Amino acid sequence: MKISESNWFEIEDYLKSDDRCVLPLGSTEQHAWLSLSVDSILSEKVAADAAAPLGVPVFPAVAYGLTPYFMSFPGSVSLKLSTYAALVSDILDSFYATGFRRILIVNGHGGNTPVLPVTMEWMERHEGARCRFHDWWRAPKTMATVREIDPVASHASWMENFPWTRLPGRTMPDVQKPYVDFDRLRDRNSKGVRELIGDGNYGGLYQRPDEDMERVWTVAVEETRALIDGEWA
User: Fold this and answer.
1) Residue from 51, 150, 156 nearest 104 by CA
2) What is its EC number (predicted)?
3) Quick one: what percent of the chain has pLDDT higher than 90?
4) CA dist list (Å): 130 to 19, 72, 80, 127, 223
5) Is the pLDDT of residue 47 over 90?
6) How far apart are alpha carbons 163 and 211 in whole angstroms?
7) Domain ranges of the chain
8) How far apart are CA 13 and CA 99, in angstroms?
9) 223 φ, ψ (degrees, to nearest 5)
């Protein structure tokens, strides 16, 4: 159940019998021809779809993350690492204070991964707390499904082009973009990154049939649900 569709009385009742919740992490950054909110849309939806049959609360996605390398693309927003670490820590503290003890973080943006140590430090400070960090799109079964469908897939390519992330009335390029040279990306500022990747797609087709996307999504939801409902001991 989404927190946005719940009231506090319902959450208080829920906490009498369960202490799990899900926190999606996203970002606001360029995704070529797709929405700037791709990472937030996908992390929240995969979390909500996975948690729905279990009745576990899903909080709204944190819409801003760590994306300094895209700051030459208008519309992108990046937080400082110290700011983001403090933000995630404060959210986890709030969960603990109100009774949650088992938290699954569903991360939708690779740039947010440096915050993982924050969850480890948080568990050290909070007796009985558990926190799992799940990069949903590159979890083993989900990524294997992506590679089986089309091994040329990356940021802002077809693998992020779902009906709920594409924008109405925009025509996608009908080509397979070659992979960018990732070694050249590592030592460039945001201006250099934009010069190298152009429209923002890192490599691959821009869109594949919805049947392919449904296949990826089904695996991703099941893989995420297994973490919510699995062994926490």
Assistant:
1) 51
2) 3.5.2.10
3) 94
4) 10, 38, 26, 9, 19
5) yes
6) 11
7) 3-229
8) 11
9) -70, -40
Single-letter code of the amino acid located at 27: S
Asked whether the predicted pLDDT for residue 182 surpasses 90, the reply is no
pTM of the model: 0.96
Q: How confident is the model at residue 185 (pLDDT cuts 50, 70, 90)?
A: confident
For 99, other C-beta atoms within 10 Å of its C-beta total: 14
Structural tokens at position 118 = 């924050």
What are 60-111's pLDDT values in tens digits? 999 999 999 999 999 999 999 999 999 999 999 999 999 999 999 999 999 9
Beta carbons of 160 and 132 less than 8 angstroms apart = no
CA distance 225 to 46: 9
Long-range pairs for 144-152: beta carbons < 8 A, 24 or more residues apart: 145/215, 145/216, 145/219, 146/216, 149/208, 149/212, 149/215, 149/216, 150/204, 150/205, 150/208, 150/212, 152/176, 152/179, 152/203, 152/204, 152/205
Per-residue pLDDT reduced to its tens digit, 4-33: 999 999 999 999 999 999 999 999 999 999
Residue 12 neighbours by CB under 8 Å, 6+ apart: none
Name residues whose C-beta falls within 8 Å of residue 39's C-beta, 6 or more positions apart in sequence. 26, 27, 28, 29, 31, 65, 108, 109
Neighbours of 151 (CB within 10 A): 8
In CATH, the number for domain 3-229 is 3.40.50.10310
In whole angstroms, give the CA distance from residue 115 to residue 120: 9
Residue written as token pair 């049947």: 211
